[in-house]
Amino acid sequence: MNHYFPVTHSILSVKALETDILSKYALGTIVDFKFLRQGLNDTYILTIANGEKFILRVYRTNWRSLPDISYEIDVLNHISKKGVSVSKPLSQKDGSIIQSIPAPEGTRYIVLFTYAVGELPLYEEVSRNNAFNYGKAAAKIHNAAQDFKSQHIRFSIDIKHLIDIPMKSIGSILSHRQDDWLYLQHLVDKIHSQFDRMSSTLEQGFCHGDLHGGNANIADDGTITFYDFDCCGWGWRAYDIAVFRWSARLRNKENSRWKSFLKGYTEERTISDADLEAVPLFIGVRHLWLLGLHISNGGDTGFGWLNDAYIDRGLKFLHDWDKEYFSKKQLSSSILRQWLTKKCSLM
Q1: At 119, is the secondary structure helix, strand, or coil?
Q2: What span, in angstroms and rounded, lies between the C-alpha atoms of 158 and 323?
Q3: Which one-letter DSSP state was computed for residue 22?
Q4: Domain ranges of the chain
């Protein structure tokens, strides 16, 4: 028996996947199959003779459990049947959807998905129109998932997931920056206090978890197809839409993109005053989550880029957001809604 040195993350052979995994699907002749990228999971792309494309996802060991993945499959099938355009899971010849293989690091799960036709939204060129349509499409996901239920248990997008667990990871690389660590602890205390005052009034339901303006392609006919539901789960809808605003803020496009997104979203779905008021709070929460995500995955992706420059950028974003959110008097929900409605009407 061969014995190999332990690994934390392996890249599976394209040849072996094509022979042992793709042969279990009724796909036709495969003309191209290659490793596309390494991310939270590994992604492969394949093309068959008629030009149709598919995406093969290989989940990382110990990243998503089998119940987590089964929940994701359930919700994709549910909202797809409701008319939402998503990258759907495909069944094998025997009717099963999830495969498992014994990789060197442990069991890895594999799912084949349809390809999201089109290209990523080009917000720089037509920011208002794309942000508006993206908002409408995001609202349709929430509407379609309103009655979703699954027998499979998946993690919740709650405060533990968004702040408490990420803070443990962030603390692990800030031992040499005690002042910054103390600042973050103080900031989290303020977030917890603010959240405690409003959490009971916020809508909860299925959330995509990563609606940052990507994770979707726009086809020539305008159809937006969402993919990568790896961060999905039960959570606050205000957080789900705040992710788009957070992403726009990172790119200094918050004013134009957020207003257009919100106008599109509210054409399909109503947002309560409480949820609107919570969106700015979730912007800071999202950034804390992202820092924790990067650091917690450093063992597989490398710690070289998680250096002081990276920490400086993350802290600057949080300092700026902290100053704006906590230091300025917050608008009342009624005034906020009037202001947003007025602004959106000008778009």
Answers
A1: strand
A2: 24
A3: G
A4: 14-114, 123-345
| Alpha-helix residue ranges (DSSP H) falling in 82-177 | 123-144, 159, 165-171
Helix/strand/coil for 48: strand
As a whole number of angstroms, the distance between CA 269 and CA 332 comes to 22
Mapping DSSP to helix (H, G, I), strand (E, B) and coil, where does residue 321 land?
helix
Q: Which residues contact 326 (CB under 8 A, 6 or more apart)?
A: 190, 194
Strand pairing partners for 41? none
Class of domain 14-114: alpha beta
Phi, psi of 242 (to 5 degrees): -65, -25
Q: How far is CA 230 from CA 210, 300, 321, 342, in A?
A: 8, 17, 27, 36
pLDDT tens-place values along the chain, 347 residues long: 567 899 999 999 999 999 999 999 999 999 999 999 999 999 999 999 999 999 999 999 999 999 999 999 999 999 999 999 999 999 999 999 999 999 999 999 999 999 999 999 877 755 568 999 999 999 999 999 999 999 999 999 999 999 999 999 999 999 999 999 999 999 999 999 999 999 899 999 999 999 999 999 999 998 999 999 999 999 999 999 999 999 999 999 998 899 999 999 999 999 999 999 999 999 999 999 999 999 999 999 999 999 999 999 999 999 999 999 997 645 444 445 554 555 455 44
- Whether the CB-CB separation of 14 and 35 falls below 8 Å is answered with yes
Distance, CA of 48 to CA of 27 (rounded, Å)? 7
Q: Name the CATH code of domain 123-345 (choices 3.40.50.300, 3.40.50.1220, 3.90.1200.10, 1.10.10.10).
A: 3.90.1200.10
SS3 content of the chain, % helix, strand, coil (to 5): 50, 15, 35
What does the alpha-carbon distance between residue 171 and residue 182 come to, in Å, rounded to a whole number?
10
